[in-house]
């Protein structure tokens, strides 16, 4: 009987060791499989197609066409021009609409100062765009700042 308790203790010790090894291996397997799924989901997020960036819709304000007499020392010519403004934000669009008579006056005054031969050239038109942009962006009383104009676009431009 003396060998029986020793044999029982060894068997019990062997079974406990086996159970401990099984428990540790199951735990390690679960740990690494959860880490693998996290890495896999992270890879899915980084490898998936990026969502296209939504750009803000452009804000345009079309102005009624202008007809201006351009006088030089030797001739009189007529400028017919239609202008559309591309504005940076909705506040600028509202400001242009609210002060439209002043906007049109500033544009007419700027156009009337031009030389017909000069504004027929690409360089002359570029300079005219810059002058119009500057005139339109000036503040309108009582507003502290003027509209933010992205670009001045000619939709019709005829000199006769």
TrEMBL record:
Sorted alphabetically, the keyword list is: Cell inner membrane, Cell membrane, Cell projection, Chemotaxis, Cilium, Flagellar rotation, Flagellum, Membrane, Transmembrane, Transmembrane helix
Record-stated family: Belongs to the FliL family.
**Primary location recorded for the protein, binned into one broad class:** membrane
PANTHER family membership: FLAGELLAR PROTEIN FLIL (PTHR35091)
Q: What role does this protein play?
A: Controls the rotational direction of flagella during chemotaxis.
Write out the GO biological process terms.
bacterial-type flagellum-dependent swarming motility; chemotaxis
Alphabetical GO CC annotations of the entry are:
bacterial-type flagellum basal body; plasma membrane
Localisation? Cell inner membrane; Cell membrane
The source organism is Pollutimonas harenae
What is this protein's record name? Flagellar protein FliL
Membrane-related topology note: Single-pass membrane protein
